[in-house]
Amino acid sequence: MTNEKSNNEIHNMNFQPENENIVEPKQRIKLIFEPRSVILIGSSKIIEEVGMASPELFQNIAANMKKYFKFDFQVIDIEKMKTVPSADLAIIVLPPKESLVWAELTMEAGVQAIIQITGGFEAKIKEQYLALAMKHHVRVLGPNTIMGIVNPSLGLNTTFEPDLMPKSGNISVISQSGGVGAALLDWATFYRIGIGKFIFMGDKMDIDDINVLDYLAQDPETEVIAIYMEGLRDGRRFVKMAKEISKKKPIVVLKGGVTSESARRALSHTGSIAGSDDIFDAAFKEAGVIRVRDIEELFNAALALCKQPSMAGKRVAVVSNVGGPAILAADALVHEGLELAHLTDHTKNIIKERYPGVDIINPIDMIADARAERFGFILEHVLNDTNVDGVMVINMLKSCFFQPEDAKVLPEVVEKFNKPVVDVPVGAEDFQLVTNLLIDTPIPTYDLPDKAAKALRVLYEYSLVLGS
Fold first, then answer.
1. Domains of the chain
2. Strand-strand pairing, 37-42 and 149-151
């Protein structure tokens, strides 16, 4: 029997409890994300020559868990202790052979779920590990998850980056790469993007993307699911499940391994079967999954979907206090397959009567001296226009009279309508100043018009998913 065949047969077996005291399969997976008691098992002495196991990794995870986790947490240093207590979840940060020994000890102690942070497991050890998990009805995330799980609402943080904790929110992330996941986590933390759950999948010896999707579909904290994917074991199951979920919760995917060269690397990286990019493209469309092309767009799209309603049509109005960026916004919208809305005469007349100096052509240049009152008045009437499906607002500070506090008028107007609005404080410092005021409002901000145009295109694509 080959290793591949053996693993497939194990995965096809059912986790059936032997008695009433065994936690049901879905509940065991839930304990990966929502434990009330956790043990961390590592060594203060073992250092792998090539591998992640080290005292530093062990100590850093312990420090994060002690700082953030809101429930029962214990550290087990195998150099000092030879037994383990029972807990909902065990986090193991040891080399493969030692991990196998201590995984069995935790299972015998009654642990229901394991996050295997470290990797480097040969096929034979994986088989033994998985067989033990089957025997004891334990679910395993990993090996090679590298950073494991982050659940900000509970303070569950199995990463080894000191003091890295995103704010609690409604975007959940699944990453098949530790490196890409770390970049996304850094992005979320720096820009204060709210995270529901953050999952580093690793080698998917047991728990796979389908299991995690199933959990997130039921998770009340998750409103949008963002995925970095290198490949799938069972594309048909993924499509079937994603098709059901995407009608209720948007799913955004960044696919790695789209070229033959990178696909080969993906296979050796996380053991994922990459397959033809055209096949994935067709599968995503069938499943109602929205595909993006880079790391930044993944979060930008998720942010828009989390904060704003879908966009019922392609017609977009641009409301700006500067001319050049508004023209670039128009180009970006058309490039994304959207259209510039033709405002009704009624809307034009109302705005012209109040502000005769403003030329009412879409994109609308309100002139550089526009402050909160002008932004609010024009935005409200543009959103009320029957020819407008969504709006991109551009509000620069430099070279303009606009002040950061003027941005407070935007959510006051937007909440009156069920149409998406995205905001673009073009630049770096301007972006940060306005974003600081809007971060906890339903309005997503982007530093360039082309990023906002992509976000609006995603909101339009999701309206097609909901209507299909």
1. 3-141 (3.40.50.720), 166-306 (3.40.50.261), 309-467 (3.40.50.261)
2. unpaired
